[in-house]
Design brief:
157 residues, mainly alpha, 0% strand
Length: 157
Amino acid sequence: MKAVPITRIKKELQHLSQEELVEIVLRVGKYKVENKEFLTYLLFEASDEDGYIDVVKEYINEQFEYINQQNYYFIKKSVRKILRTIKKYVKFSKKPETEAALLIHFCRKLKKMEPSYINNTVLTNMFDRQLGLAEKTIEKMHEDLQYDYKLEIEELF
């Protein structure tokens, strides 16, 4: 079965009643955890973006505490998993402020991690790439916000 374009789906959804829409949304939420997480964001957390950022930062902190630090192989695997999760939460929000705040927090945690990321090329490249991505995202924001985030980035150097 081939998926239809989103514009056609939108037109079909406009013809449905509220009960039918609720039923469809609930069915979509049942099939994947990511769909359920996205619905949770839209319904409960989208109105309080700062609270959402704090919750995700707390999750990042917890994940960095659980990193297996026996060798760099396990560290890289864990850090990549954390980064994938951050990207998913950024995708939910689609706000540059959220993306910049989470990427800066990720870089801050990576910098504080023991053993140091500097001793591993992959982790160093990951740090540099995410910091560069945060800087790019900051350029899209209002000038006042840019200044605040650039100060945070300068602290990482």
